[in-house]
Amino acid sequence: MSLHLFLCVLFLASFVPLSTPLDSSPYLSPTILPQNYQKMLKSFKIYTYPPPETLSFDSKVESLFYSSLLHSPFITQNPEEAHLLFIPFSFHSDLSTRSAARVVGDYRTEFIYWNRTLGADHFFLSCSGVGHGSDRNVVELKKNSVQISCFPTTPGLFIPHKDVSLPPLANFHAPDHAPGSKSSSYLGYVRYNWVKESILVEQLLADPEILVESEPSDQMTYEQRLAGSKFCLFEYGPDVSGIGQAMSFGCVPVVITDRPIQDLPLMDLLAWQQIAVFVGTSGGAKEIKRVLGRVVVEGFEDMRDSAVVASKHFVWNETPQPYDAFHMVMYQLWLRRHTIRYADREWV
Questions:
Q1: Is the peptide bond before 21 cis (omega within 30 degrees of 0)?
Q2: Inter-axis angle of helices 136-143 and 97-110, to 10 degrees?
């Protein structure tokens, strides 16, 4: 038995605890996911076009995904057997739509594959997302190809159900043992800069059950506070990189936002309502406290346990491991592998 297969079997043994009812699982399809994952490992193939001489990305998580992809068994040298094709180009935040159109136009001219699906079996990395444009090449790139972006994504530049967001890269130190029933020191914890709205911060500071940091804490203190809190409060925005680590310590994420979130990582995989709380700002700290109190009474332990299980999929490794962040992003791509291929024809 190969090492990779052994690790997969080992993980499957603890994939969904036998004592955990399926309705409290963090997964949308807890019985189907392990089967599909194995099918993906056996059959999924990616062809990557020849990269430019120099290739750099806006973020470390993009670079790590790209490196993991290139060294993975998913890569094939035969584009005819590939399910999806990867565009090895960095669509930087300052890249003009004209430049993006030129990139796509070059692939359309030099290779036959783009025109077979109008780009629907292609994917690319762009941390901030590609802007809109009237050029046909940009329209097809935005409408058809799968964009892999950083979470949270740029408003208006992410298309739900087509695009994929990367789990945030964090300084991830999971606890040695999975959190069990614990007596928490705090109902809620707000790390420095996790919540920025000034009035809300003042209200939370006034609540003795909520710990709000006024300055950055060191790693050890941070982890102690994660482990000692029932809920971790995040304002939806740039500072959400700690969401996976919070879950690993049994600190249920509370995402504060006034609009629907459609770019959560692993949305094809996780039942986010089972692992996180979503609440608006209109009711202030009083409403947040009321919602958290209800969760504590109605199902906190199930939510905490589901969050701990889900946290495994937020871990990025230099060498990818079964069911980690890299493999779960690949799984989402695998779900998007079915495309319509058009008959050969001349394009103008």
A1: no
A2: 90
